[in-house]
Amino acid sequence: METSVNFILPDHEEFYKWSLETDITKWALRFACDMITIVVTGERSYLMASYYNILSNKKVKNSNTAIEDPERFIQGIKNHLSGFTYFLYFSPFLHYHIPFIKDQVKATLKNWDYLFKIIDLIIEKRRKEIEEILVGDELRNDMLITLIVTNTVRDINRTNNGRDNISRPITDDKIRANLLDSFQDGIDTTANTFSFIVYYICKHHHVKKKIVDEIDSIFLSKTFFHLKYDDLLKLEYCDAIINENLNNKVRNKFSLLTFGGGLRICPGRRLAIIELLFLMVILFGKYEVELVDMNAPLKVKSKATTTCGELPIKIKLRK
Ligand code: HEM
């Protein structure tokens, strides 16, 4: 079966004329959020399209989505990522009694209300769609649908072993928590990794050239909006760059420690690699890419996780 990945940016002539300075971290954050939203929930979030609207004179309309305000949604995800650390590091006593922490906790809870409302809407929408499909007919294959149908008559793996606690359908609040987990763990991580990759590639011209040559040898057309999964897997050099960036150790079963290991190994690691390859093709295949300041060090912020503050780059359409 042929699987293709459709880029979320509108396939618009205006886009090809782009020649500008942009913060690639912002770009990658929106891309990763679009990818997670579609892969995990089946919903489109149009974050890249809304970013395009900020940068371009031609505006793209987004319709039929539970996420009405894409920029607010991305801010909500970012606030969630910074806000949950107050629950990680500070006890409930401090939440109530230290003024600064109290304010942050209040804002985080308010933000949760906003995100929960959107996620609940998506779950409700998907439940309705499933109800309209006859039992036995094929359903789309995303994480949300799997969570909704688990232990229901539509679950092909259903086993009733008489133990109620593991044969009950999953409740909406648990489904919501699982979805939020994916947003929390899968967006910033991918966006930051991509920013680090771009930084190091731009620092080393011979590496950049090899990457562009490999992309050109596999993707003949300059319109990279409908990438085939199988073609992405042919990008051996790009894949090696990603792995090098993630971990300098010799490759073996346990070498990619960035994704953890054992039972709790990152379940999104395959998706992350595909996203990173995809971003490399889109960025380096289409544009000449340079750092705005070749001498500036990486703006790394280390809190609960290590992130890239911003990475200004210049992009110009390739001749
Ligand atoms: C470059 C990108 C990514 C990196 C570096 C990364 C890294 C990690 C690491 C180190 C862990 C902890 C593993 C352990 O405890 O041993 C983890 C867990 C997790 N990751 Fe990722 N991840 C990335 C992308 C993603 C994506 C795209 C998703 C999308 C679904 C995702 C979802 C998760 C989840 C749900 C967990 C928790 C698993 C559990 O607790 O059992 N991650 N990730």
Automatic annotation (TrEMBL):
Gene3D superfamilies referenced in this protein's UniProt entry, alphabetically: Cytochrome P450 (1.10.630.10)
Requisite cofactors: heme
The entry's keywords: Heme, Iron, Metal-binding, Monooxygenase, Oxidoreductase
This protein's record includes keyword Oxidoreductase: yes
Superkingdom of the source species: Eukaryota
Membership in a protein family: Belongs to the cytochrome P450 family.
Name of protein: Cytochrome P450
